[in-house]
Amino acid sequence: MCEQCSVADEDRPDARISRRTLIAGLGLGAAVAGATVFASPASAATLKNGAWCNPALGYFPSGGHYGASRPGGAHAGQDVTNSTGTAIYAASAGTVVRRQWGGGLGGRTGYAIVIAHGNGVYTYYGHLSVYRVALNQRVSTGQRIADMGASGNVTGPHLHFETHTGGLGSTVNPVTYLAARGVDLGGGWSRLDPGARGARVRTIQYLMNQRGYGLVVDGYYGSVSVSAVKRFQSARGLVADGQVGPATWPKLVYSLSAGANGNHVRALQTALNKHSAGLAVDGDFGSVTNSAVRAYQSANRLVVDGNAGAITWRALVG
Ligand SMILES: [Zn+2]
Q1: 150-165: per-residue pLDDT in tens?
Q2: How far is the CA of 197 from the centre of ligand 1 (A)?
Q3: Residues 80 and 224 in one domain
Q4: Centroid of ligand 1 to alpha carbon of 2 (angstroms)
Q5: pLDDT of residue 34 exceeding 50
Q6: What is the distance in A from the centroid of ligand 1 to the CA of 77?
Q7: Residue 81 gets which letter from DSSP?
Q8: In the chain, at which end, N or C, are there fewer CB atoms within 10 A of the end residue's CB?
């Protein structure tokens, strides 16, 4: 975990709690204000809209939680531990606004990246070993941006991950922030609600088409796709709520290996491409796709066997 990651201006526990609560409120307000097409409180559910994903696979080390006591303040992020070289992905689309030691923020250490997501929302990735994007580069959700490392003042390799809302420097708990957006920080199946968009929706649509649903693969989880998923859920004895989450994903994915061909392979290729694989989505699980699966498994510290089973899928769509 981090020895020195701290927030210099948040040194009194009482002030920290009240400010954090205020910031959380501002963050929600900004998110709702930005989503002008939604008018009702039910729009909160649409935060699970595919815009966010897991920045790294790993586990939470003891004492690495948000708000943990640190010299000079409180721990400003959540630590995710894995080995040096583990892939770090952009948690959401945005622009790389910092790529420097400490991210240009007081109290942080190590090689760091800050991504601006708009509406005053930023994410911070610290203790990196390798940068894989340039300053001012636009990045997409799930794009590989760096490798995990142990730069700065640490006891071992890990990602120090922060979420800022209401401006750079105003941190909120990354675990709860991401959970509200359908992401299980550190690893786990994602949750996508009706209205979601993006690569994971195309993945779902391809998987559904392999099962004969005949959906248009447009990356929009609208009424036609939702209705089809509800029918699939009913047929599998699941709650037919239209949310593709930890109960539905395992029944939706296929265990795939070299030689497979079809829409389920297109789903796999689409999911790999979300993480910078750059594959042609041709439905052919040939040597190129096999290499991409192995590279992804290696970069995420999974068993490297070239087969896409449930654990690999969970990481891919998380
Ligand atoms: Zn940390």
Answers
A1: 999 899 999 999 999 9
A2: 31
A3: no
A4: 4
A5: no
A6: 6
A7: E
A8: N
* pTM, entire model: 0.87
Q: What angle is formed at CA 212 by the lines to CA 206 and CA 217, rounded to 5 degrees? A: 30
Ligand 1 centroid vs 21 CA: distance in angstroms?
21
Determine the distance separating the centroid of ligand 1 and the alpha carbon of 295, expressed in angstroms: 27
Domain ranges, residue 33: 13-179
Mean pLDDT of 69-83: 93
Residue 136 lies in a domain: yes
Give distance in angstroms: CA of 214 to centre of ligand 1: 46
* Residue that finishes a domain, picked among 179, 208, 225: 179
Q: Are residues 169 and 66 in the same domain?
A: yes
In whole angstroms, how far apart are CA 229 and each of 201, 232, 246, 271? Answer: 11, 5, 14, 18
Ligand 1 centroid – CA 161 distance (Å): 7
Asked if the model's pLDDT at residue 113 lies above 90, the reply is yes
Q: What is the tally of structural domains in the chain?
A: 2
Q: Looking at the structure, do residues 137 and 228 belong to the same domain, yes or no?
A: no
Token output for 256:
């795939």
Averaged pLDDT, 125-137: 98
Residue 22 has pLDDT above 90, yes or no: no
Return the amino acid letter for 164.
Answer: H
The residue assigned the tokens 């070239």 is 306
